[in-house]
């Protein structure tokens, strides 16, 4: 199906993304997967290529491009290259949004140029050992003391956690107010009392560094507060539709790649004297998956257009997030089955896609939470 929402400038940008990935990422990716972390140098090279801070004002070193189709193209090319997506996506589509929308001019000058050049790597720290999708349950606190906040608590499952130079941390500044007492603070590398835990070994996305963060009487200057005190929940709720759309973009792009690979395999692999794809069951499976992909592409494009118009609702973001990520998991499983024993080998591309897909239905809000949000929108 021809996707008409992309224009000549998007395709030119696609070439830039593809060349960067083939030149700077793919030669090193296997090593990064073994090490569990990417080299910091690739961030600086991504900045030089104009792939970071795509929507940030050029005054701060960004691309100044508000059209979300450009980050979509970058995500598509990452997935087609079979590279690691979460780190770049979180940096570009999530944290950069927080550091442009509610920050002061001084804060923007302090952080954004580094984020756009790749000299600074960003992370966001919301999840805790006892608080995942339900942000209101966080226990990390930030107590005002003079011109600083004293931060105490623990965060977990933090993408870019080890490499990060600036971390947007959700903490309770008014615990008695529950969810309405959350603020966002930026903790910078080297701040006393800020330490990182072990590098977590995950089922998939091995090159994406993920770790725990600890704050022990960590003193954060009050000029590192994002926006207003106790307004953090509102800022997070405003940012979640874009974050969930970015996850859906990765999901659909992964499905596109998996189906292309599986179709090629089904046409070339022979069993009982016939190609795998010539058997009716497999032919029907591929036909079904191709149809499901088309539906996902149309809905994703609809939501991207909605975000560009400032009209993407929390409900539609929840819909596109859960449906596309569950589709990604399902299609990864079906494609692996078609590959047979070769698909189960750790070295196979489809086995890696199968492992990478599983977390997509969990982070950014689980499928169950997404359905709760949609159900509430129905008055239930």
Description:
The protein has 380 residues and is α+β, with helices and mostly antiparallel strands. The chain has 11 helices and 10 strands. The chain has a 4-stranded mixed β-sheet, covered by helices on one side. Strands 2-3-7-6 form a 4-stranded antiparallel β-sheet, covered by helices on one side. It is globular and about 80 Å long. The mean pLDDT is 95.
Query: Which strand-content bin applies to the residues?
Result: 15-25%
Quaternary structure: single chain
Radius of gyration: 21 Å
The sequence of SSEs as H and E is HHHHHEEEEEEEEHEEHHHHH
Spatial strand order of the main sheet: 1-4-5-8
In short:
The protein is of the alpha+beta class and 380 residues long. The protein has helices spanning 8-35, 40-48, 69-80, 86-101, 105-117, 232-268, 280-308, 314-339, 341-344, 349-357, 367-377; strands at residues 122-125, 141-145, 148-159, 166-172, 182-188, 194-199, 210-221, 225-226, 270-271, 274-275.
SSE topology sketch:
Blueprint: H1 8-35, H2 40-48, H3 69-80, H4 86-101, H5 105-117, E1 122-125, E2 141-145, E3 148-159, E4 166-172, E5 182-188, E6 194-199, E7 210-221, E8 225-226, H6 232-268, E9 270-271, E10 274-275, H7 280-308, H8 314-339, H9 341-344, H10 349-357, H11 367-377
Parallel strand pairs: 1-4
Antiparallel strand pairs: 2-3, 3-7, 4-5, 5-8, 6-7, 9-10
